[in-house]
Amino acid sequence: MKTTPAPSLRAQLGRTLFSLAFISCGAVLGGSLYQMVAEVPNWSTNPAEELQAYRQFFRFSHAGYFFQTLVPFTLLSLLAATALLWNQGRALRRPLLLLLAGLVVNEVFTFAYFMPRNLVLFLPSTASIDADTVNTMAREWQMANYPRLVVTLGIVYTFLRTHRLLSWLPETKAAAHAGATRPAAELRPELTH
Fold it and tell me: How many structural domains compose the chain?
């Protein structure tokens, strides 16, 4: 039985960067879930009053720093991985491009919809804004965060499926044509069960 040759340095680096992007996106999902479960209940009942205590507690750092670090890292890692793995074939290119598109759409939505509300709700310098505006923006923030969380979950799921696909692919098309591919049962383990 023939074995698959060791991946090239380019493929190894692409797979490593893909894995880093996957882990980083998983951390973003975890942070989003933590916010919904632990943070939001602490300021969503009466936002105009409760956000004052929230702002005071988070006066040196806040969740935005976490997301502002991980999301660009995820995008850059995935972009570099896509460039490095481009020669692995169309079957891999499509999900990589889908992941990039999903991340970009999620970020555009965040910047366009959430950032104006974040500036009002979470920054201490805006604590003087009237209670009705704060309550409305908090309600809008909370309701829009559910679809954003679902999209992030879909992105992580797509990462998982793409990771599995990446592990099944031969290194290059040239290796496949040379007959140095994995046996079909190894490429698709679910076919043997």
Answer: 1
